[in-house]
## 1
Amino acid sequence: MTPNTDRNQQLFDRAKALIPGGVNSPVRAFRAVGGTPRFVQRAQGAYFWDANGQRHIDYIGSWGPMILGHGHPRVLEAVQRAAQDGFSFGAPTEREVDLAEEIVRHLPSVEMVRLVSSGTEAAMSAIRLARGATGRSFIIKFEGCYHGHADALLVKAGSGLATFGHPTSAGVPPEVVQHTLVLEYNNVAQLEEAFARHGRELACVIIEPIAGNMNFVRASVPFMKRARELCTQHGALLVFDEVMTGFRVALGSAQSVYAKALPGFAPDMTVLGKVIGGGMPLAAFGGPRALMENLAPLGPVYQAGTLSGNPVATACGLATLQEIARPGFFEALGKKTRTLVDGLTAAAAEAGLPFAADCEGGMFGFFLLPQLPQNYAAVMKSDSPKFGRLFHGLLDRGVYIAPALYEAGFVSSAHSDADIAETVSIARDVFRSL
Ligand SMILES: *Cc1c(COP(=O)(O)O)cnc(C)c1O
């Protein structure tokens, strides 16, 4: 299309003049794959239409929240009714209590929650609470896991084993990350070494149990078992960042997947976002009562928010959670996602393409690698130029996946069997052309 008629390009040009990179969150700019971001005009069910009027089958779904697809009638009605009654009060409302009850009902490890507005805020606050409750400063995070953009979490591994991290962003002073240890995901030996050295100073280990910010990498069951044991032995808290996996991979979230393999397993704190807001700015963190009561106004750990528990956002989140709690919802969603992943895997095999894929509930990932990677370094061995060609091949034909090879994919209940079949058929053509 010429620049004159490409509305996406026109909008991108206007945006770039006013907004850094033309976007309000970096991955939207397509830097990893090149080309012009699609500006979304409207969306319905499994589809959105871009500024040129092209329809796309949406496998991003706002990076996970749209588990019911776009514009689900009952969610839409709940949001419209809530908006009629007022946008924000800075005072408590009934729906905050309803949503807290709905969250706690499905997560046995969570007795109390605090609602916030973004996953970043939730993870940052959870870490403050872990530090406040334990009186310790050190935290462990894993390379390739993303926990939002709080300063202390924008950190990558230093050289050598279990060394302190380096900031990954300008503007983060080294002193701010000096208590953040960055370890390799799924590396039991490194974790043991870190605990041996710093166990008594560790406030928490924060982890994405299924890491969706390096595409789709599961923490192995032995690794998770050992993390749980070490945290318990040393009095550190195991914090599950389920902003992406929460109410997405199962009604009981990723922790229920690990509890199946490890009876009695539970994290000490859970960070939530994305699906619990149903597409509105809403996130949360929660855990046992005794821990959560360290938060202001009851305890000494300060945390607050003007728009926290927003009445329209809670209406959206509550309606979404009520829909996904219906019997059979996750069985159907999981089956659909599995069909997609199996279809893509078969199509890649026909094309002789190295390909490995995995999924859980409504979340999936695939790699242009002969086998599933176990950590960030292995993920980054993916063929990036080839991924770029794959991405644009799908995009041109109306299949919208994440514009970076380190991002997960999402299926919603609105994706029909025909949508999945169409996607696999398009992918088959694109795989052959690579
Ligand atoms: C998206 C995400 C966050 C950050 O949430 P925002 O709402 O974007 O601030 C944190 N942790 C994980 C695991 C995420 O996927």
Note: The longest strand covers residues 202-207.
## 2
Amino acid sequence: MQDAITAVINSSDVQGKYLDSSALDKLKAYFATGELRVRAATTISANAATIVKEAVAKSLLYSDITRPGGNMYTTRRYAACIRDLDYYLRYATYAMLAGDPSILDERVLNGLKETYNSLGVPIGATVQAIQAMKEVTAGLVGPDAGKEMGVYFDYISSGLS
Ligand SMILES: CCC1=C(C)/C(=C/C2=NC(=C\c3[nH]c(/C=C4\NC(=O)[C@H](C)[C@H]4CC)c(C)c3CCC(=O)O)/C(CCC(=O)O)=C2C)NC1=O
């Protein structure tokens, strides 16, 4: 896993240089948003179950997916879906705190599409639910932190697509 600081340092180290002004600007931007990130993470962790529930209500409930024959039908599969959404929310929050998406590649997206395809989990509907979490989260944490979280929800969505 990488974060905004190690990303900048690693790329300077590869070139055997001190941080140049663009690297320093990236660090400054990251440090300047530190408080925002920590506050957003606190709000998200206190409201995680609500975020998932509202996102499901916005995107999946009362669709064919929750009816007999749908992939969320049966309590076991419904619970697996909710659990997956909670994973996405938690890992997007980690990535937002780190200011870097690498944790998503390593711990979430690696092999996920293949798993979904082999189980018949619909990817389009999953992406819709992730996008619904993005909206619900932005509503809770405000536009600036919401935009930052949006980067990582979108990263998961495009990694799945
Ligand atoms: C932390 C990283 C991580 C991820 C991301 C993860 C995902 C993940 N989701 C799974 C299943 C599943 N995922 C879903 C999800 C859904 N079905 C729908 O129709 C909805 C659109 C969607 C929810 C948004 C369902 C229903 C299953 C169970 C499928 C089955 O067993 O038939 C499985 C198969 C094993 C299991 O059932 O636990 C994995 C590995 N596991 C991990 O360890």
Note: The two ends are 22 Å apart (CA to CA).
